[in-house]
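Cyanate hydratase
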Amino acid sequence: MDPIMTKAAVAEQVVTARLRAGLTWQEIADKVGTPLVWTTAALLGRHPMSAEQAAAACELLGLGDDVAEGLRLQPYRTRDDAVATDPTIYRFHEALSVYGPALKELIHEEFGDGIMSAINFTVDVSRRPDPDGDRVVVTFDGKFLDYRW
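Tokens:
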């Protein structure tokens, strides 16, 4: 019996198939019927997909049942230090290092003692034209969870 493909191996297959097919992440998300950022994260191994979602993605990408099986696995959501050094991802770390304490203070001032959920959560990426160069707009939308004692 062959082992189930790892999330990393599945992600590699998905990225390769997407590039060779000339598909955008948005086209895949539309086929799967799920939000763009969530779909991209799931196909890169950070969320489990339902059987229907995995089948739709694999059908579009021309990938087999072995990849669909891997897409359904529950992932480990751990920090990857190698990924953290990527310049784009590092800038998110840098922004949170600079603005994280201020965001925490402002969340506490507005909502009270608690946190923003990253489970009951959506995220979106968009482009905003600007004369000095287009702007990247990232929106985090998380449910407020108050600390209860």
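The mean pLDDT is 95.
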